[in-house]
Structures are given as structure tokens and as C-alpha cells.
């Protein structure tokens, strides 16, 4: 009889309110706190409205939410403002929940609708990314789908563990058009990453227009690994990327790699080359052979002019000066060069970021080292931290998106090992480096070098599913870190990527449905 009653109840439940296909906790990155209420699932009605606090940035998030939901649902989803927005059978995005920090949000799903509350538009934006994941995967479709748009009932309270959560795209080894970069921005936003580092210059190409040194782009921008045409971003292109990222609460970190990785600049301006001799264009993949002459004053004119223009185009606080693999500039020539460039950056009102090779150079206020080592016992970096440096962690053997997943991965490197999803997930940014306290860690970044990556599809293949793993390390509380749970949640993302037309690697470690 009890069994019969259960079957009957289930049948009645199926008729009245079939359970949401997604559970409230099925979110990547995992939220700080999830309290499901299975009695409070919400079916988004066709006439739902989006009500938003009367604030331009919040209204922009409301429009972004509507733009996300309209194609698949086919619903009009009008966006209106209100002094104290309530769900009223739809979705409310409310500012004024001031206890959640600069990026936190709370999300409540009840029979009355969905309410996202935050202190900032960035918080609302992150809440919207969660809301999106709570709807059936078909919500990612670009065309209308017949579906019951149910959200699971309950409450989420969420905020990030680290303030810096990023990914890097190398647009120098292969050049990618603006549209591809914007698509990468979308991928970052989906997983609550908030920094896009653009590796804009390298031996194979200079990818940003500089008015005071025009040949950098027009001559230095020609070519790429393998001999393709290359290209560069005009100032308008770059501004478009920066603005598109800013609308998604993502800060662009531009990198001008110095003093090595500069062959393309030397091709454009041989006067910068040691002995003034123009090198040949380079389309290979070796590193460490090129450098601007640290003993020449002309070098510092070049660096000052370039960094000033890039700084002026970049609203974010960071300027990345590279500093890696300058094998031919050694000892005091190297540290002296870095210290002088650090002063140039400070003079432009920006905070310097550099690969961790700059550690031995003197401290500059607030400077950030991006650590890409593979052995967490790094006394030089720990010493730089003691002198005041902060860190962004990109361990080569966990966070490098250009490493192969497995021996048969068709593209990618393996110098830092093979990185399948578990390896990408199983490390702790707060405790990775010996002698470095968690407080010195600003966060994480997953770099994609593109020696072997030539298209948007290949970018996505290397990002998915590892980028979400890095995103979770940057966002979610360490107490919830759990590979078994993560792989299940990640598996459920696959249907979303498929619906969104995102290429991804079907890692054998993940139980894709
Ligand atoms: C090392 S990581 C580099 C890059 C290469 C990458 C390939 C770093 C700061 N420098 O120049 O593209 O390895 O994995």
C-alpha cells in the first residue's frame, strides 16, 4: 500500500510539477552554499518579465540575461526597472544585497519566481551565469526549443575565493580575429572568470597597433607559426575587445613580452636589435633567442612609448611586461632592465605583472608575479613574495591549456606533462608554493599558448573541459573541493556546450551522459 501510494504520488507529481531536470547544486564553479528546496521548483512562464534595479549597469545585466534566454525559449522577456524589484512570477535582479562582497550574489528560486541579489552589477552578472546553468541544457540553443523551462527550488549564496581568476590567450604565435577573442570572453564569463590576459607580442608576431612605432604592427604583425598571414589589432579592435570584456565584468591584461620574445619587433625596427642587424622573420616555435638591447637608450624610448599607448587603451590596472625566457639577457643586465621597466609602468599609473622570472629584480609597489613553474619549491619566487610581491598561479603541469590531454591528443605540447581534467583540478592555489602564504595569492590563470592552436575550434578543444576546472579552483571554497563530485557536475556541462556549439574534448575521466 505504501508503495502504491508512492507511485500514485509520483504520478500526480509528474502531472503537476515534474522535478527540474537540473539539481540546484549542479553548478560549475561550485557555489559557496546551496540549500535546495524541492517543493519550490519554478516553471518560467512565457509571459515572464525581468525586473531590475534602476541602475544602468544592473539593467545591462538584465538585458544580457534576456539575450541569453530569448533564443531558446522564444519568450519576449521584457526588461523593466523598479526601485525594489520582485520576481512577481518572473525574474528579479536586485542591487542592495550589500553583504556579499564585490562579486558575490544570492539566488532564490521559489514558486513566486527567481530573485538574484547582489551588491554590484558584477555580482548580478555572476548570479545570472548560475541561473543559466539551472535551466535545462537546451537553454544554450541558438534556436527555439520546445522545453519546460523549470528551475530547481532553493537558495544559493555565493562569492569567490580569489579576486583574480583568469585565462590567457596567445594571439602572437597564431593570430585570431576579434570575433574569436570575443567568443573566448564569453567562455570566461560563463565560468565566472574575471581576467583575460592577452599575450600580444612574441617572436612570431606583434599584434597591437602602436601609433608612435607603426611598423611594429604593419611589419611585425605579418606572419605566424607555420607561415600563415598573421595580423594585428587596430586600436579600435583592441578597444572593442576591452569594451566587450568590460560588459562581462572581465578585465583585460595586456602583455608586451620583454626583453626576450621580441623578434617581430626587431624585424620591424632593426635599430632595437643588438648590433642593429635586422633578423629574419620567425615562424618556428623555439624560444629564448631574441632580445631588445638593454644597454641601448633607444630600447627605453621604445618601451616607454609602447607601454604608454597600451596603458592609455587599457582601463584595467594591470600591465604585463613578460620577462620570461630572456636567456640572452643575464644577471644584472636583466634585473636592471626589469627594474627600469617596472618604474616605467609605475609612472603610467599601472601595476606591473610579469612572469615569475622577474622575481630577482627589485620589488616595485604591488607587483604581481605570474608563476608558471612545475615544482612548487621555488625559493626565488618565495623570496620575492617576502619582499612584497603577490602571485597569480599558472602551474605549467596543472593550469597550462596548451598541454596535451593524453598521448594521442592531436595538438599541444607535453613539456609540462599530460594534463587531463583531474590533473587540471587536483591542486590548491592557496597552498601550492612552499613558503608562500595564501594571502599573497591573488588567484589563478590558465594560459593557452598557441604554437599548435590555429582555429576557434582548436581553442575550444583545449579550453573545454579544463578551463572550468581552473575556474572552480579560483572561485569555489576549498572545503568543497572534490574530484568525484566535480566530474559529475562537469559531465552535465557537456550537453550545454553541445547546445551552444562549443567544441570540447570528451575526456575519458568524465562520465559524459
Ligand atoms: C613557455 S610559459 C613559454 C611560452 C611557450 C610555452 C609553451 C612562458 C612564460 N613561456 O613562450 O609558448 O612555454 O608551453
From TrEMBL:
One of its GO terms (cellular component) is membrane. Residues 27-158 form the Beta-hexosaminidase bacterial type N-terminal domain. It comes from Micromonospora deserti. It catalyses: Hydrolysis of terminal non-reducing N-acetyl-D-hexosamine residues in N-acetyl-beta-D-hexosaminides. Belongs to the glycosyl hydrolase 20 family. Its EC number is 3.2.1.52. It comes from the Bacteria. This is beta-N-acetylhexosaminidase. The active site is at residue 325.
